[in-house]
Design a protein that fits this description.
Layout lengths: L25 H11 L7 E5 L5 H8 L4 E6 L2 H14 L4 E4 L2 H7 L4 E6 L7 H11 L3 E12 L11 E9 L2 E8 L13
Amino acid sequence: MRIIAGKAGGRRLKSPDTTGTRPATDRVREAVFSSIGSWVDDAVVADLYAGSGSFGLEALSRGASSAVFVESGRKALQALRHNVEMVGLGGSVIEGTVEGYLKRANHRFHLVFMDPPWSKPIEQMEAELAGLDRLLLPNGEVVISRRHHDLVPRPPKTWRVAADKRYGDTRIIRYEKVEDDDHGIVPGEL
């Protein structure tokens, strides 16, 4: 696994030595960042369920102004801290659960990546999206990774589905927080 492009392009990232963590493949991250484009420039980013930190570090490499990484797994935290230090582009590592972080966080984000364990119940993900709503700036985006056949979590009412694509076993859903009455499609099964 490596950073694909930008200031740190080509740098190899350490993967957590655990069966509970499933790092996003280079192919999936490349597709996600191609769809986001230059919008990541100067963005304030959160990488929730960060694992190795590959999404947030890719964003920093491509010009994001800052990133917060939230992770609770001990082995994943070791790899994450190593990667943040090795890449050298900054970023704050928060040890704890996503649910706990969302309750106490007080700054806002342009772009949020959520790559939870695929076994995470959809109801918990929907509760986390609701908690994330107050932290997401207008026109901000949330990118979620799921198994290709899993249900898609319903977003808050002021969000719309900007994209829903499959890459092998992975399904990537991009939500956008909108300010008008066009809330997009209601997610469901494909």
